[in-house]
């Protein structure tokens, strides 16, 4: 039986809101009342150190009465995953995050604990690594992980921060064009394009998009299909 409880946020903010403020109701609905000790993975934060990043998340989650401890504080980070009530994975650079998950041998412990029902909350890069690979991240490959294969908590690719904004005098590819390039070489896949402000909530074998604005499925050829928010679908 699949007991997964996962929340994948497109971003840590929506508009000019405070850090993680828009996500607090979603997080509160996901975690149990006895889930008070959160293990935080700060490794995507390239320009902020692990300690500062963990403290920032602690301040943001304080209204929920949650205690946050950074995984970098543990001598055995893999054991810390097995001992945690929940795991939160922050945003930043997806390549750096995945490189650290490989280096510390954390991918399999996280997969095991999530399958057992430990809540997983990710935002931005922390959501990207929940897909089968990080091939649809927006980030630059500033470091090379051993593989682009990631956690595979969901069977489809993710693209947080999805936007269709274009600048009239800019001649580079749009986000949709970039994702269409990926799908041209991987036509059997599909991409969940997640604008800022929404999230994917997973409960067992069911998932639903929550928040606003709408998300989209993007499939081979750049075909875009709007997803109805708050309507569960099978994983």
Oligomer state of the chains in this structure: single chain
* Main β-sheet description: 8 strands, mixed
What is the total tally of β strands? 12
- Poorly predicted sequence stretches spanning 5 or more consecutive residues: none
Shape, per Cα inertia axes: globular
Strand arrangement, largest sheet?
A: 3-2-4-5-1-8-9-12
What is the top-level CATH class?
Alpha Beta
CATH level 4 superfamily? Class I glutamine amidotransferase (GATase) domain
User: How would you state the average pLDDT, rounded?
Assistant: 96
Structural class: alpha/beta
Distance from N terminus to C terminus (CA atoms, Å) equals 13 Å
Beta-strand proportion: 15-25%
What is the alpha-carbon Rg in Å?
A: 17 Å
CATH topology: the name is Rossmann fold
Secondary-structure element series? EHEHEHEHHEHEHEEEEEE
* Total of domains: 1
* Contiguous helical run count: 7
CATH architecture grouping: 3-Layer(aba) Sandwich
Report the helical percentage. 25-40%
Structure write-up:
With 235 residues, the chain is of the alpha/beta class. It has one domain (5-154, 195-212, 229-234): Class I glutamine amidotransferase (GATase) domain (Rossmann fold, 3-Layer(aba) Sandwich), CATH 3.40.50. 26% of the residues lie in helices and 23% in strands. It is built from seven helices and twelve strands. It has helices at 24-30, 50-61, 77-83, 94-103, 107-115, 125-128, 175-185; strands spanning 5-9, 37-41, 67-70, 86-89, 120-123, 157-160, 191-194, 198-203, 206-211, 215-219, 223-227, 233-234. The strands form two sheets. It has an eight-stranded mixed sheet. Strands 6-7-10-11 form a four-stranded mixed sheet. Helix 2 (50-61) links the parallel strand 2 and strand 3 (67-70). The radius of gyration is 17 Å and the shape is globular. The relative contact order is 0.17. The model has no long low-confidence stretch (mean pLDDT 96).
């Amino acid at each position: 039986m699949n007991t997964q409880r996962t929340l994948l946020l497109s971003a840590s903010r929506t508009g000019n809101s405070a850090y993680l403020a828009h996500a607090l109701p979603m997080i509160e609905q996901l975690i149990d009342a006895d889930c008070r000790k959160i293990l935080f993975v700060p490794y995507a934060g390239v320009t902020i150190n692990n300690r500062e990043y963990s403290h920032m998340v602690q301040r943001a989650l304080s209204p929920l009465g949650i205690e946050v401890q950074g995984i970098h504080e543990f001598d055995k980070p893999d054991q810390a995953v097995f001992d945690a009530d929940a795991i939160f994975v922050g945003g930043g650079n997806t390549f750096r995050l995945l490189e650290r998950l490989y280096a510390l041998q954390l991918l399999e412990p996280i997969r095991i604990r999530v399958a057992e029902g430990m809540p997983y909350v990710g935002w931005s890069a922390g959501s990207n690594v929940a897909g089968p690979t990080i091939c649809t991240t927006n980030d630059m490959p500033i470091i090379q992980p051993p593989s682009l294969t990631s956690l595979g908590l969901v069977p489809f690719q993710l693209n947080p921060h999805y936007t269709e904004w274009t600048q009239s005098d800019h001649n580079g590819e749009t986000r949709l064009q970039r994702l269409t390039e990926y799908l041209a070489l991987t036509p059997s896949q599909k991409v969940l394009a997640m604008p800022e402000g929404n999230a994917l909530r997973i409960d067992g074998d069911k998932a639903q998009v929550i928040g606003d604005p709408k998300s989209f499925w993007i499939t081979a050829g750049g075909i875009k299909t709007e997803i109805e928010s708050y309507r569960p679908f099978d994983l």
